[in-house]
Prior knowledge:
Helix content: 25-40%
Low-confidence stretches: 1-15
Mean pLDDT: 93
Radius of gyration: 24 Å
Structural class: alpha/beta
Number of helices: 16
Shape: elongated
Strand order of the largest sheet: 8-7-6-9-10-11-12
Amino acid sequence: xxxxxxxxxxxxxxxxxxxxxxxxxxxxxxxxxxxxxxxxxxxxxxxxxxxxxxxxxxxxxxxxxxxxxxxxxxxxxxxxxxxxxxxxxxxxxxxxxxxxxxxxxxxxxxxxxxxxxxxxxxxxxxxxxxxxxxxxxxxxxxxxxxxxxxxxxxxxxxxxxxxxxxxxxxxxxxxxxxxxxxxxxxxxxxxxxxxxxxxxxxxxxxxxxxxxxxxxxxxxxxxxxxxxxxxxxxxxxxxxxxxxxxxxxxxxxxxxxxxxxxxxxxxxxxxxxxxxxxxxxxxxxxxxxxxxxxxxxxxxxxxxxxxxxxxxxxxxxxxxxxxxxxxxxxxxxxxxxxxxxxxxxxxxxxxxxx
Length: 354
């Protein structure tokens, strides 16, 4: 491509972008940027915002960015974006919004961020879709005990005793307990309605009971829920108050052969207590998150046939990342048009969420 042609194309792009469009900068890890912003999405970004060079950085502290940061109005952040503390914010006096192209904004926002009246949005709703899908699959597999049977080399199809040692194999008339009526939790409540004669109990002291009922769940206190479930699925945020909310007493309250599914945060579960229950053969587990993450290589959870551990696969990966980018660009379009933002995050809401 000739230099003249490149110059012409830059002029064409400039003409397509309204001079009143916000000036934006993408801030995230380079590999994340390359996976989330393919050619069509970069083209859309250029139509929605003014993008002086560079349009992307993975080092917000680079002194060479001083002039760029002095005029930026919107940051599109993602995994790998740094904390926006006072020192960094001082370099961006015109910053008005951070549109996060991933889930929680907790690692990025600070008291200084909120005090300056900067707005924040998250695409956690888009990221909830694959997590809920994974969770439904885990619940169905837990009903048939499929991961545990597949992991045990001694099990044969014609040996009923060995197959049934993980519990009854069925998805009919199961009771599913959902802890946390979060973005993912409410999707899971909706998805499990596909199972015949399912009973879905939901424990969340902050949720509106009427909303739980409309989704198909039954509001239930955690202590009442635990002894009734075949599958316990966790969807609460990681907060000081939720650390080890499922510990030895809660695990002991679960029925024999119940399955714990955790696609939320590893810190919700007391790992040592879970190791003891699963090693005894009394409980099964499907874990996409752990505490610590990853588990030590010598953790018994890796070696037990009644435990399936996956390395944080439930969230957006592969082509699913484009769904998050599209959601963030939708927010940018609304912001540029002066319309209400659909997925705005406030400091108060963040206090009770992931």
